[in-house]
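User: Please fill in residues for this 158-position structure.
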């Protein structure tokens, strides 16, 4: 098991910048004031799970620690209501939310090669990560799966 004193890990800036160039995010749904990636953002006090994400283009790096399934369910629902939600999550494909929401309803899954280095961490994460996109458009058979190549992303990871 992996543990930490804090379950909010800041998104690697180079990863966010690259994705922001592609998606043009308007709302960070799970942030602190210090690590928010968008001017419009929800903090733990706002409880992004209870907020309406509208038709925003949302960045979601949810708090780690057992509630990822709730965040994925919310991202799927927001996508159905008109939002685009890009989720940075642990690539634990054995989890029920992968089978209940991601595999059947995601527009796209991007498996990230290597391990990301979050925020001010001194080493890379002890887990693989994936990006999942919900946008109200889902394939009738399966989501588009993209295997990221380390050299094409130029990310700070190993």
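Assistant: Residues filled in for all 158 positions:
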């Amino acid at each position: 098991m992996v543990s930490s004193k804090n379950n909010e890990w800041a998104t690697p800036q180079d990863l966010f910048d690259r994705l922001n160039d592609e998606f043009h995010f308007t709302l960070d749904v799970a942030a602190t004031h210090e690590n928010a990636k968008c001017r419009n953002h929800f903090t733990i006090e706002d409880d992004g799970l209870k907020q309406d994400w509208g038709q925003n283009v949302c960045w979601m790096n949810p708090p780690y620690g057992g509630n990822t399934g709730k965040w994925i369910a919310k991202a799927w629902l927001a996508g159905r209501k008109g939002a685009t939600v890009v989720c940075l999550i642990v690539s634990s494909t054995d989890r029920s939310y992968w089978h209940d929401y991601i595999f059947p309803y995601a527009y796209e899954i991007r498996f990230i090669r290597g391990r990301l280095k979050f925020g001010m961490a001194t080493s890379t994460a002890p887990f693989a990560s994936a990006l999942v996109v919900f946008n109200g458009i889902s394939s009738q058979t399966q989501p588009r799966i993209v295997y990221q190549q380390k050299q094409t992303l130029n990310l700070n990871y190993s």
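For context: DSSP finds four helices and six strands in the chain.
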